[in-house]
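Q: My labmate handed me this sequence with no annotations at all. I'd like to see what the chain might look like in three dimensions before we decide whether it's worth expressing. Could you predict it?
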Amino acid sequence: MAEPLLKVAGLQAWYGESHILHGMDFEVPKGEVVTLLGRNGVGKTTTLRAIMGLTGRRTGSVVFEGRETITLPSDKVGRAGIAYCPEERGIFASLTVAENLVLPPVVRPGGLSMDELKELFPRLWERASSQGTKLSGGEQQMLAIARILRTGAPLLLLDEPTEGLAPVIVQHIGRILHQLKERGFTILLVEQNFHFAASVADRHYVVEHGRVIDCVPNAGADLGRLKSQLGV
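A: Here is what I predict for the chain of 232 residues:
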């Protein structure tokens, strides 16, 4: 395994009195695509939110680029170089596609230029003057991903990027993730679509009851074991 860009240890998180994460332990190696897999309600989305500091109380350790971030507020986690694309996408209805795209600040060099984004997401430039929420679901997802690629953050947290999308859009997003990996991005992906996850990931962490129960390489017989665990 390559050097971890992100190391999560003993991560626990609460929403009010509800204890959701019960000691998440995993690593995301630099330059890899890593998935969190499991049934609905096991804590996958909460894990991403806890990494970003968006849950209520949280304890444990979240080390990014060798720096402990568990005590940082969410805005400083983002400025440290972790970009989050939530399942609900967070598109601003009052802003155009172009305005949504330039909203997040650039946190470090290395983000994609507008020309590079145009090459990856040509459809967005055709709709640049449209309101963000007038886009189709697939276009909104592309906008949400494109928006964080400008920031220069080397670690991308993507929550259910294929949820509810047509197969042709899912395939397009898969190609984009492969290109992002080739460009050096590291991606932590929450995904319900097992076949999509298997097509893009280097390894999978299986989550149950707010903790990781297995780490499965994305290869051969190991995938058979993973499918059995997930019941797919």
